[in-house]
Amino acid sequence: MADKIARLLAKLPPKQVKVLLYVMTKITKGNLDGLDVKILRGLDNKYRVRVGNYRIIFAVRERGEHVVLYVAKRDEKTYKDL
Predict the structure, then answer these.
(1) What pTM, to 2 d.p., does this model score?
(2) What pLDDT does 77 receive?
(3) Which residues 6+ apart lie within 8 Å of 28 measured at CB?
(4) Half-sphere exposure (CA, 13 Å, Cβ side) for 42?
(5) Can you say whether the dihedral through the CA atoms of 37, 18, 78, 60 is positive or negative?
(6) In a structure prediction context, what are the per-residue pLDDT tens digits for the chain, which is 82 residues long?
(7) Number of Cβ within a 10 Å radius of residue 69
């Protein structure tokens, strides 16, 4: 997964990369304050954060750790790959 995220970030403008990295850091630290977080229906412990036209999908593991799974631009296929 990290390879896919890195490839996506390499294609984006520096400002967008900075914002996405900031939000991903907040997620992995468990600080979800001020983020647009919603639970994904039908998927256990998986959530999405909206960052403009991009979505960051993350999971909450049993020990309470937050793991970023997927980052993608929002389109009709964004949630089908999960």
Answers:
(1) 0.88
(2) 79
(3) 65, 66, 67, 68
(4) 3
(5) negative
(6) 678 889 989 999 999 999 999 999 999 999 999 999 999 988 888 999 999 999 999 999 888 899 999 898 888 877 776 6
(7) 15
pLDDT of residue 75: 84
Q: Which amino acid is at 31?
A: N
Give me the helices (H) in 1-82, please.
2-11, 14-29
Structure tokens at 32: 């979800």
Contact 24, 12 (CB under 8 A): no
- The closest of 47, 51, 49 to 12, measured between CA atoms, is 51
CA–CA distances in Å: residue 76 to residues 21, 31, 80: 24, 28, 8
Q: Which residues contact 47 (CB under 8 A, 6 or more apart)?
A: 37, 38, 39, 40, 57, 58, 59, 60
